[in-house]
Write a sequence for this structure.
């Protein structure tokens, strides 16, 4: 594709240009598309490069191009609507990069069935740089989840932590999925209280890993696999095999080497899980452990 301002430096500490970013997204587009296609897209744009302030964008302006994207209109709770872009082709990914997009974020469900997710996500957020701690938390959470028959895959966030993801059959609604994600996170934190927490406020976490279960509401988002992050070195959120947990830091794969991982598929064996029975089992475990999940409003917590 024709790239506008291809020589503009996007990562000033690394000399990475806009042309490099677009070329990267052209290379990984086919691998990214299954995680993007048909979902309400939120993009993180840095038109002047990552050395300047960027912004998050949900609404899809006309210049995004009807030939490459669809649009999905959602009513806001306080009135008005948000018109999300929806990607249906690999070509659209590079086109977004040409508009200054660095990072792609999507919800756990597609627009054609927005209340029934096909992914469940736990985002492990440690104190900055505490990679050993977040590795341990990832292992603990995986063990808890496997106890309920939940098989997970692992991803670097490109930032401080890891994401654990479980592929779902569309057998539970979004509220049930979010409650199950929160319940398993609470059980993990109760089992390892010195290392893991559900405290939303950073001031209350201490030196513990926050097990963020909040990515599971219908229009809550998480970073898309293979997305770049707007951080020094151009780190990438990449799928990992579980046996790589001890070797690959959360921000340890960068633009220059990420494409070398395209030939492997560590998530290839992930199959959808019917969560209806799992959710009942998690609720029973919460009751047995006397753990309550009170109403939660992230904007007031």
């Amino acid at each position: 594709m024709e790239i506008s301002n291809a020589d503009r430096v996007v990562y000033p500490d690394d000399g990475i240009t806009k042309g490099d970013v677009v070329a990267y997204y052209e290379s990984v587009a086919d691998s990214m598309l299954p995680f993007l296609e048909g979902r309400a897209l939120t993009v993180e744009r840095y038109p002047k490069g990552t050395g300047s302030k960027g912004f998050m964008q949900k609404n899809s302006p006309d210049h995004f191009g009807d030939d490459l994207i669809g649009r999905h209109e959602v009513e806001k709770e306080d009135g008005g609507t948000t018109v999300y872009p929806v990607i249906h082709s690999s070509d659209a990914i590079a086109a977004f990069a040409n508009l200054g997009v660095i990072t792609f974020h999507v919800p756990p469900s597609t627009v054609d069935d927005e209340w029934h997710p096909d992914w469940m996500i736990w985002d492990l957020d440690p104190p900055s740089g505490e990679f050993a701690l977040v590795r341990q938390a990832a292992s603990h959470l995986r063990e808890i989840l496997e106890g309920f028959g939940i098989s997970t895959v692992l991803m670097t966030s490109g930032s401080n932590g890891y994401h654990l993801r479980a592929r779902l059959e569309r057998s539970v609604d979004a509220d049930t999925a979010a409650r199950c994600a929160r319940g398993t996170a609470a059980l993990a934190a109760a089992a390892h209280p010195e290392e893991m927490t559900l405290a939303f406020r950073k001031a209350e976490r201490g030196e513990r890993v926050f097990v963020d279960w909040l990515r599971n509401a219908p229009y809550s988002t998480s970073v898309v696999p293979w997305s770049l992050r707007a951080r020094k070195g151009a780190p990438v959120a990449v799928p990992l095999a579980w046996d790589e947990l001890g070797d690959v830091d959360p921000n340890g794969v960068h633009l220059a080497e990420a494409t070398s991982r395209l030939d492997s598929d560590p998530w290839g064996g992930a199959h959808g899980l019917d969560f209806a029975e799992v959710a009942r089992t998690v609720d029973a475990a919460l009751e047995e452990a006397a753990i309550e999940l009170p109403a939660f409003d992230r904007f007031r917590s």
